[in-house]
Amino acid sequence: RKDPMGMDYLPVYPSQIAKALPPLPKDEEFAENKSTGPRRILYYRNPMGLPDISPTPKKDPMGMDYIPVYADGNDDAGVVAVSPARVQTLGVRTQAVEQRPMTRRVRAIGTISADERRTWIVAPRFEGWIEVLHANETGQLVTKGEPLMEVYSPDLLRAQADFLVSASTKQPGDLQAGRNRLLNLGLSDEQIEAVRASGRVLRSLPIPAPATGTVIAKTALAGLMFRPGEQLFTIVDLSKVVVMVDVFESDMGALELKAPAAVEVKSYPGEVFSGVVDRIYPTLDSNTRTGRVRVTIDNPGGRLKTQMLATIDIAASATAGKAVLAAPASAVIDGGKTKAVLVEVGEGRFKPVSIRTGRRADGFVEVLEGLSGNEKVVTGANFLIDAESNLKAALAAFTEARPAEKEAPAQQNGPPSQSAAPAGRKQSRAPNNSDPHAGHRQ
Prior knowledge:
By secondary structure, this protein is α+β, with helices and mostly antiparallel strands. Helix content is 17%, strand content 36%. The radius of gyration is 45 Å and the shape is rod-shaped.
């Protein structure tokens, strides 16, 4: 006969059918199973679902091992058997699942800025005029105590006169009051002692630098009149600078204070500057979905300039230093909603196992469910084995469903059944006894 596609059925001769399976060798008669005990192997079936069985282990033309069928009916469903030669050809590699702390590298872009903790503003507390300007250019290096300018102020003259009068009367209360007034105007103890030692009012007084650093901004000019609180100088210590880093929201949870960071800038290719994370800001930018992190770096010689663009590599801990069960990321087959790995169950035998994953770091994935920690998973050629496993399962389901189908008639073109109504004649329906008018309608 022919199939629906018009192809001839193939003959099968009696010599091709095994009348009785020969006895199995003693060492292959039972397969050890820790959960169910000894299991008797009935025969070996084709791994691709073809109707071919063998009483002894064998391979198909593709090199795949035949699958054992046990007497209890529980053959290893889903297990893929691959010959050693094919394992080598496919490049199958396995790696053990282990408990390990997961560390990751967070890479981000940042901008070098002056450290706000090393910034000073020179703003006099009195009104006056600049008579001599010593720090007369931006970018000038100054040291602590070095005079920035010399100023004339009527307020300072009156305060000095009152202090000298109280010093001459030798009244402790008056002397301290005069001294406090000079301190409140911003004079240092050294300047006050110089006024007392001279015994006269100084017409102009020097304003010293509050710290060692670089003048990065100034509005002071010679002869300029200034008001109380007016910012005349901005001095920054650039021996240490900070990098303000914008980190993605997904990476914020892995960052920790005092984490080491490597900083690179385009001005010095190949050179890495070491820094430390010393501030993780509590706010997030709603537009860019990034958080801000501050990294402090030593800047010997002032080589790093403010507003330089930098690339930062921060060593972050995904699990806060705790060891978790982790599998190589290359072993996970991500199917969207489901994730699976191929577990090695024996020599050349692999079984897909569904898992639930957690955090990713350093080429590993945290395994929350599905593995116990004693397995070896496939890290190379796993997609080829998984495709073979899916094909095997599909063919197995197809071949198992065939016996349930109803057998087709022996002759498709045989005579019609006697009970069939002749063509062109309509069969009358039997009257419905529940309908009193059924007979009239017929």
